[in-house]
Specification:
20% strand, six-stranded antiparallel β-sheet, 27 helices, single chain, Alpha-Beta Plaits, seven-stranded mixed β-sheet, alpha+beta, elongated, Calcium-transporting ATPase, cytoplasmic transduction domain A
Length: 733
């Protein structure tokens, strides 16, 4: 089974890796993915769930199962921990004034450390202690992780701030029980301890709020369901809470209503805004037996609707579930950051120790060496590395959800951002997926009215796609009275009306009826070359005319494919259709590489061959016969109006009908990949530059970082990474 959890207490990627390793160590766990961004964990297992919770607890954290449709976001505590931050900042500002303000601000002489060292140290201690207590969770989490053998960012902060506070307290006790030199009091690093904690906590709160913005689009989806709904009971309309809705109710939907469930229109007509789910801006007209979906808005009309799916089974709930699960997955590029982060904290602790020893040997001053060691501990930022990938992934997934594109896992998003090859199915993907009449011709001895009247009277009695196309095209024509009607499988239709007999079908049927078709030979050749099927309409005394019927390409398909090529993507087409219609569609769309008459297995083999030759291959399809190639491709993209099988087989689902959404998806994936690379670059560059500076590498040039500045820089690095990822939400795609 697969279950999601909220994990409390994680602060950086080191925490994530520790939790993952603890859970994966259980023999019955198949896979485990932990997200620093959402504090979420998804586990596939076949065993006792309590052992998973116990493993997380033993690792020093706490896991709580979450509801199936709950959106995993930043801990509420992170967003509300503002008053402790305010008090900490006020106290830290006072510390900074009393310890450093005497050099450039008015300062009471009796508090100078050289004059009253004990009073001065006592005041700093009293100001620092509340900050320690207000932010004690950092010490609890950091020390617990340190003891557990998995040091994290809290461990670095706890060591840095704790060492500063302990050293300052040691100096205070020296003055209580001895009489050291008064100048020693001036080197007590109480302000370093207080300001480190205050600024780190402020940074975490701001980071938490910024992180939470990445889930806005997903949370907006989850809030689309209304709280109440109008139902028809005993002929009267009543308003009930949505949670009481059942499949036995009859819904009443009017203009302005938010649809609470998936359903079928039983009576009436609606104009429905489905932009929240599909990204389609224009309302869609829906009549009797049409489907409506939860979360959409009724723009106009009135209808009685029968619920088909309610609660967690609606299309909206499935969408939220897909997107939430995707946010917890990891892109392959994240493994790079994970490997670095796995050794990052121990590496920084080693650098801090070396820094302390080197400066102690050079300067012979304990406080001087401690100053640099604390700066190294504080300025290192595993958070920036840990957030580099998931923030961009979450923003991209959320942006996609707003566009009607459901990205089911982060790996697919990254792979699509790298691909140079996209293979399209033809029918229903590049074409409309339904037959339409392209043109018609009348025989020399017939009139259009007679042709249309006979065609509509006969074809309206058949459910064949070709018959439906002709029936729709000739709608409005007068009907003849049909006395006898029969279906000739593989050939067409036969009917009698009074003394007249009629036939509608292919060339084989015309030959059986000895009907000549030579006079429309030019029409036949022209449209057969374009892949159209020719349906002949004849009377006993001769041919009445014919219709050319074909599946037409989507209006935006050619432009989309041209734009993909401009973006460096090679486009291919696979279809089960015969060579003639396949060639016609390929020529109309400007596709040079296409393969026709393929079975689902043939499509899958073609995908496998292309993957072996070109590497990453994306497949876009919609039908049941596309499920196999969608699975075979590196990235499977399903047009959401297609079959449920295709949607389940795909890695990404486009809920709209426009092929232009494929181009938007490619641009979104490339943007996300670019932001991930930028974030990783800046996070690594930040640590590569700042850690040596904090260690004193540029001290001979007069350039150094105090622990307070180091803590501010650390917080800024995480905010920079998150802010860069948030630009995905506003980028033009």
């Amino acid at each position: 089974m697969k279950r999601s959890y909220k994990v409390y207490g994680m602060m950086c990627t080191a925490c994530v890796l520790h939790v993952e390793h603890a859970v994966l160590a259980l023999p019955f766990v198949t896979s485990a993915s932990v997200s620093l961004l959402t504090s979420g964990m998804t586990v596939e297992f076949d065993g006792d769930e309590q052992e998973i919770l116990a493993a997380v607890k033993k690792a020093g954290y706490r896991a709580v199962p979450i509801a199936e449709n709950e959106i995993a976001t930043v801990d509420a505590a992170e967003k509300t921990r503002f008053y402790p931050v305010i008090f900490s900042l006020i106290l830290a500002a006072a510390l900074a004034y009393f310890e450093m303000g005497r050099e450039f601000l008015p300062y009471p002489a009796f508090l100078e450390p050289e004059r009253n060292p004990l009073l001065y140290l006592g005041l700093l201690f009293i100001l620092t202690l509340p900050i320690i207590l207000l932010n004690n969770r950092i010490f609890r989490g950091g020390i617990r992780s340190l003891i557990g053998g998995a040091p994290n960012m809290d461990s670095l902060i706890a060591l840095g701030a704790g060492a500063a506070f302990a050293y300052g307290t040691g100096i205070l006790f020296a003055f209580l029980f001895a009489d050291p030199a008064a100048t020693l009091a001036a080197h007590a690093p109480f302000s370093s301890a207080g300001m480190i904690l205050a600024l780190i906590t402020l940074g975490k709160v701001l980071e938490g709020r910024a992180k939470d913005k990445t889930a806005d689009a997903i949370r907006a989806l989850a809030s689309l369901t209304p709280d109440t709904v109008t139902v028809l009971e005993n002929g009267e309309e009543h308003t009930i809470p949505v949670r009481e809705l059942t499949r036995d109710h009859v819904l009443i939907l009017k203009a302005g209503d938010r649809i609470p469930c998936d359903g079928r229109i039983g009576e009436g007509h609606l104009s429905v805004d489905e932009s929240a789910l599909t990204g389609e801006s224009l309302p869609i007209e829906k009549g009797r037996d049409a489907e409506v979906f939860a979360g959409c808005t009724v723009s106009d009309g009135y209808a009685k609707v029968f619920p088909t799916e309610i609660g967690e089974e609606t299309s909206l709930s499935r969408t939220v579930r897909l997107v939430s699960e995707a946010a917890a997955t990891k892109a392959p590029i994240a493994k790079t950051a994970d490997k670095i982060s796995g050794i990052f904290v121990p590496f920084v602790m080693s650098i801090a120790l070396i820094t302390f020893l080197v400066h102690l040997l050079i300067s012979k001053e304990f406080s001087h060496a401690l100053h640099y060691a604390i700066s190294v501990l504080v300025i290192s930022c595993p958070c920036a590395l840990g957030l580099a990938t998931p923030t961009a992934i979450m923003c991209a997934i959320g942006r996609g959800a707003r566009m009607g594109i459901l990205i089911k896992n982060a790996g697919a998003l990254e792979a699509l951002g790298r691909t140079k090859n996209i293979v399209f199915d033809k029918t229903g993907t590049l074409t409309e997926g339904r037959m339409q009449v392209l043109s018609f011709v009348t025989a020399s001895n017939a009139e259009k009215e007679t042709l249309f009247s006979v065609a509509h009277s006969m074809e309206s009695r058949s459910e064949h796609p070709l018959a439906i196309a002709i029936s729709d095209y000739t709608r409005g024509a007068s009907e003849i009275c049909i006395d006898k009607f029969s279906l000739l499988h593989g050939k067409g239709l036969f009917a009698k009306s009074g003394k007249n007999s009629f036939a509608a079908g292919n060339l084989s049927l015309m030959e059986d009826c000895e009907i000549e078709t030579d006079e429309i030979e030019d029409f036949i050749k022209e449209y057969e070359s374009r892949g159209a099927a020719i349906i002949y309409i004849a009377r006993a005394d001769g041919l009445l005319g014919a219709f050319a019927v074909a599946d037409t390409v989507r209006a935006d398909a050619k432009q989309t494919l041209a734009a993909l090529k401009e973006n460096g993507i090679a486009v291919s087409m696979l279809t089960g259709d015969a060579p003639a219609p396949a060639r016609a569609a390929a020529e109309a769309l400007g596709i040079e590489d296409y393969h026709a008459s393929l079975t689902p297995e043939g499509k899958s083999n073609a995908i496998a061959a292309l993957t072996g030759e070109k590497g990453i291959v994306c497949m876009v399809g919609d039908g049941i016969n596309d499920s196999l190639p969608l699975t075979a491709a590196t990235v499977g993209v399903a047009i959401g109006t297609g079959s449920d099988v295709a949607i389940e087989s795909a890695d990404i689902v486009i809920r709209g009908e426009h092929t232009a959404d494929v181009l938007r998806l490619v641009k979104l994936s490339r943007l996300a990949l670019r932001k991930i690379r930028q974030n990783l670059f800046w996070a690594l560059l930040y640590n590569s530059i700042c850690i040596p500076i904090a260690a004193g590498a540029l001290a001979p040039l007069g350039i150094s970082l105090s622990p307070a500045l180091a803590s501010a820089a650390m917080a800024l690095s995480s905010l920079t990474v998150i802010s860069n990822a948030l630009t995905i939400k506003r980028a033009k795609i």
